[in-house]
Design goal:
Largest sheet: 5 strands, mixed
Strand content: 15-25%
Shape: globular
Distance between the termini: 48 Å
CATH superfamily: Ribonuclease H-like superfamily/Ribonuclease H
Helix content: 40-55%
CATH architecture: 2-Layer Sandwich
CATH topology: Nucleotidyltransferase, domain 5
Number of strands: 5
């Protein structure tokens, strides 16, 4: 009897103290599906410490509900506003602490790496990333927050970086023997087939 392919559940986070995005995907072999995505608004709380508490409680709740096996988060970008960077770093730290509390392995990805993985362009806009994810996951409704799709992109990037790649058979209508090709060639073919859906 063949062994069952292990299932991975990846929780991706786009950190922020005003708006924090989250995206959760299920991976079995090369089959990837969306479980949930959304945006939390800790910025509604006036006190900074309260915002961090909201982030920790929310992520802990997502972990208990979906039981992810891996955790991925976008690394803070370097900007000129020191206070903004400090707040973002705190948000990321609290999110990572919540994951570590539940024993999850944590991976961190630079924004350019995430964009490159999803769209093939490290300088892609948030809209381009969102549109590509709508295509990949066949989202019927356009997400209301780019923070949510950014987080989904982080989770998807982590999956691609794991070395498993993406099963693009349904999206590209490839023949079964296409699975023997490299992930790079599959991804290039996918982008070419869907060029009309990508805003340049």
């Amino acid at each position: 009897m063949a062994a069952t392919t292990p299932i991975k559940i990846i929780l991706g986070i786009d950190p922020g103290t005003v708006v924090m995005g989250y995206g959760i995907i299920r991976v079995q072999g090369q089959q990837v599906s969306l479980l949930d995505l959304g945006a939390l608004k800790p910025g509604k709380a006036k006190e900074g410490i309260k915002r961090l508490q909201i982030i920790h409680v929310t992520i802990s709740g997502l972990i208990r509900k979906y039981k992810p096996t891996e955790f991925a988060i976008e690394a803070p970008f370097f900007g000129k506003n020191v206070q903004s960077m400090l707040k973002l770093g705190r948000a990321q730290g609290v999110a990572m602490a919540a994951a570590l509390q539940y024993g999850l392995p944590v991976a961190e990805y630079a924004p350019k790496k995430v964009k490159q993985s999803v769209t093939g362009n490290g300088n892609a806009t948030k809209e381009q990333v969102s549109r590509m994810l709508q295509t990949i996951f066949k989202l019927e409704d356009k997400p209301t927050h780019y923070d949510a799709t950014d987080a989904l992109a982080v989770a998807f990037c982590h999956h691609l970086q794991s070395g498993k790649g993406l099963n693009l058979t349904s999206a590209t209508k490839k023949k079964n023997n296409s699975t023997s090709k490299s992930r790079k060639n599959d991804w290039a073919a996918f982008l070419a087939k869907n060029a009309s859906r990508i805003r340049k």
